[in-house]
Specification:
Length: 376
């Protein structure tokens, strides 16, 4: 198998798995229990939270564990809206469905929502954010790096614009964690998901700045300072902390290696297959992502033919699997339906090789020729 869908999920790192195993076996206590087994688990959670907070550059009490990036986005947007009661929300049209669908939910409850379009490179203008902020604006969300195109947003400037007007700014860092420096000082909320940086699935975190007005997301026990009830997944928390620490420590080496393989792949595709276009800003993107459109082809058909050869790719967000309409991200970037529907997302990871990239190019050539030939 050639796995080129690392934006959807990454394989768990063996070092991370080894760190988790003791908390799946002998140290299985509930971290809320008062006995010795519970204290062992609680100490592991405490240590993991401290480690993550240090990496994010914030106090440990600002870090709250979630089930992943989707919950983090829901937590931020709905939690702020619940605390405020009414007002205006700003979200980018290119956000993850977790944010877009949450905004629609709040719209049904009476909140006004502004959906901002990016430019043709997929970038949201900070000046557009400034001009859209109203006296009753309570929340703004623009992700750090887009999950479909990998395009990096000017989050520092966006965060400053929100801070000047007292607007809670949430930055989805799911695709940038372990790749780019965290923009912690520029945002009030920040979300990550462990399985995007070689950690376990089903665990993530949200950083909420001290003093931010936000209501609890899951009612229940007093876990996560009362903001998120439910028994803590100790093993997953330990795994996430280990994975994030390793990803950040190795980011320079990994980014260089991944970018080299990705760039070689893109160069070959664009020069050897006619009618191909790279979607999104050519340079201002994370090193793993290559979103490419193939004229005269349907992205789903290309995915199917590549899958038959053992190559795993995507046509968009994994959370939107099964959608038959063109990518909302590419449509928001002013692309026509034909270009959006012919797009395939190739996302590389630290385990991918140049040889795998070369094999994929050859499989792509055959797949494109088959689809175009069949239409002819």
């Amino acid at each position: 198998m050639i796995y080129l869908d690392n934006a959807a999920t990454t394989p768990i790192d063996n070092e991370v798995l080894q760190a988790m195993l003791p908390y799946l076996k002998e140290n299985f206590g509930n971290s809320s229990s008062q006995h010795s087994a519970g204290r062992v688990a609680a100490n592991a959670v405490l240590y993991a939270r401290d480690k993550i907070a240090k990496i994010l550059g914030c106090p440990a009490e600002e870090v709250y564990f979630t089930s992943g990036g989707t919950e983090a986005g829901n937590f931020a947007l709905k939690g702020v809206c619940a605390a405020k009661g009414h007002g205006h929300i700003i979200v980018a049209e290119t956000e993850h469905p977790a944010i877009l669908e949450s905004a629609k939910d709040m719209q049904k409850l009476g909140f006004a929502v502004s959906y901002l379009l990016p430019d043709e490179n997929g970038i949201i203008s900070p000046s557009a954010i400034k001009s859209e902020i109203r006296r009753d604006t309570v929340f703004c969300s623009v992700m750090h790096a887009n999950n479909e195109t990998g395009v990096i947003q000017p989050v520092e400037k966006i965060g400053k614009a929100c801070k000047e007007r007292g607007v809670f700014y949430y930055c989805d860092c799911v695709q940038s964690a372990g790749v780019l420096p965290f923009p912690t000082e520029f945002c009030d909320g920040l979300g990550i998901s462990a399985h995007k940086f070689y950690g376990p699935k089903g665990i993530g975190a949200i950083r909420i700045k001290n003093g931010a007005k936000i209501s609890r997301f899951i009612s229940g026990g007093r876990q996560e300072s009362g903001l998120r009830g439910g028994t803590v997944n100790v093993a997953a928390v330990v795994g996430m902390a280990t994975a994030l620490e390793k990803a950040v420590q190795d980011s320079e080496v990994n980014n260089k290696k991944i970018a080299a393989v990705r760039d070689w792949f893109v160069k070959r595709v664009l020069t050897e297959i006619d009618g191909t276009q790279l979607n999104g800003d050519n340079l201002n993107r994370v090193p793993s992502n290559a979103n490419i459109s193939f004229d005269g082809c349907d992205g789903e058909n290309l995915l199917f033919l590549l899958d038959l050869k053992g190559v795993c790719v995507s046509t968009g967000s994994a959370c939107s699997a099964g959608a038959v309409s063109p990518s909302h991200v590419l449509k928001a970037m002013w692309y026509k339906d034909e270009r959006a529907k012919s797009a395939v997302r190739f996302t590389f990871g630290k385990y991918n090789t140049k040889a795998e990239a070369d094999k994929t190019v050859e499989y792509l050539k055959a797949a494109v020729a088959k689809i175009r030939g069949g239409k002819g």
